[in-house]
Amino acid sequence: MLEAAIFDADGTLFDVTALQHEALSRALARTGWEIGNRRLSPEMSSAQKLQALSELRSFPTDWHEEIHLMESEHLSQVIEERLQPCPGARKLLLALLRHGLGACVVSPMDSTQTRGALARLGLSDLVEGVSQSAWDSLGGFRSGAEAIATRVGKCVAIVGGDYAAQRARESGVMAVVRVAGFQDLHAGVLGDLRRQGIGSRFAGMML
After folding, report:
1. Residue 44: closest CA among 136, 125, 123
2. Region 28-32: what's the mean pLDDT?
3. Nearest to 26 by CA among 80, 76, 60, 85
4. Is 61 helix (H, G, I), strand (E, B) or coil?
5. Please, what is the average pLDDT of the chain?
6. In terms of pTM, does the model score above 0.85?
7. CATH number of 4-15+84-205
8. Residue 37's CB: how many other CB atoms inside 10 A?
C-alpha cells in the first residue's frame, strides 16, 4: 500500500539547478575563476564541478572548502531573490495530504537551505521530512523514506531526470514518476500514477 511520496526536489517542486550554477559561478568569480567548460553537465553537483575544474584546469583543490562556503552564501541570496515553485506543486502536495500520504523532499542542498526554500515558496507546512543527499546517491530515496518513518517500497519517487529515475528504481520504490514535460505537476503526477495502476484512490485526487 502506498504511504508517501519522495520528491527529488530540483525540477519537481522547484528548479534550483540554474540558481546553484549561478551561485557557484559567483563564488568562483570572487577568486578570479569561472566555470565556462562545456564538459561540465548541469546535473553535476558543485563538488563534482569543482573536482572537474581541478582535473581539467588545475583549479587548486585546497580552495574547494572556501568556494563551497561562498557558494552557500550566494545560493541563499539567489533563492530569496528568484526561486519559484513549479506549476501545480502546492496543489499536488495538498492532494497527497488530503489522502493521508506523507511527503519528503530529497535535495543535494543543505537541509537548512532546502527547508528555507520550501518556506520561501509556502510549501513547508505540506512536507513532513527533508533529507540531504547527492543527486547521484542511491541512498537518497531510502533516507527520504526513513525521514518520514516509512519503507522505501511503500513510496512513489517523483523525479525530474532520467538518472534520478534510474536511481529511484534501484532503491526499491513502488513507482517512479518523471515529471519532465509536465505543464502542471498536480495533473501530470496523479495522471501518471493512475496510468501505472497504483490504485483507484487517485481518481478522487484529480478533482
Report:
1. 136
2. 88
3. 76
4. helix
5. 84
6. no
7. 3.40.50.1000
8. 11
